[in-house]
């Protein structure tokens, strides 16, 4: 519980920092066409895949910071951000606790193995989320979902 709470506080702080400095950062990006396109692309990706990006990034070292700060910079809806971050933090903390309990001895001597395992889990989780999202879009387009 404390791990998830601390992670959520950190993510919300990163969002707040991005949000606080969003105007000067957006102005800097707007000065060059290529940078402006990159910021627009990031904004679009966060609007479409924000939830799955927040869930996946939690498992990738450094990924969490990039996605949470970018969410603030692009001013993603705070409520949606908080919901997905809360979910991501609970899933991440539970995963870490279970992994430590089940396989802690195996990773004790090799942090590299733990990192590789976490990275593979993040990629698999991300792939699963993309597949679910793809089928939901297909069902919605076919009129099978509201």
Give a written overview of the molecule:
There is one protein chain. The protein is an all-alpha fold and 146 residues long. It has one domain (2-141). 86% of the residues lie in helices and 0% in strands. It has helices spanning 2-20, 22-30, 33-57, 63-73, 78-107, 111-141. The model has no long low-confidence stretch (mean pLDDT 88).
> Residue-averaged pLDDT, rounded?
88
Give helix and strand order, one letter per element, not per position.
HHHHHH
| Helix run count | 6
Quick one: how many beta strands?
0
Global Rg = 17 Å
Major sheet: none
Structural class: mainly alpha
Q: Kindly report how far apart the N and C termini lie.
A: 35 Å
- The total number of structural domains is 1
Ranges where pLDDT stays below 50 over 5 or more residues in a row are: none
Shape: globular
Residue share in helices? over 70%
Topology:
Blueprint: H1 2-20, H2 22-30, H3 33-57, H4 63-73, H5 78-107, H6 111-141
Helix pairs in contact: 1-4, 1-5, 2-3, 3-4, 3-5, 3-6
């Amino acid at each position: 519980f404390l791990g998830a709470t601390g992670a959520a506080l950190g993510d919300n702080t990163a969002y707040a920092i991005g949000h606080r400095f969003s105007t000067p950062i957006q102005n800097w990006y707007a000065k060059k066409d290529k940078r402006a396109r990159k910021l627009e692309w990031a904004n679009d990706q966060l609007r479409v895949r924000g939830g799955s990006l927040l869930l996946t990034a939690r498992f990738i070292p450094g990924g969490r910071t990039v996605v949470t700060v970018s969410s603030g910079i692009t001013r993603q809806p705070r409520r949606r951000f908080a919901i997905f971050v809360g979910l991501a933090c609970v899933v991440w903390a539970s995963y870490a606790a279970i992994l430590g309990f089940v396989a802690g001895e195996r990773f004790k001597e090799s942090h590299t193995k733990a990192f590789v395992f976490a990275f593979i889990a993040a990629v698999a989780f991300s792939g699963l989320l993309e597949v679910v999202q793809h089928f939901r879009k297909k069902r919605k387009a076919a009129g099978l979902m509201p």
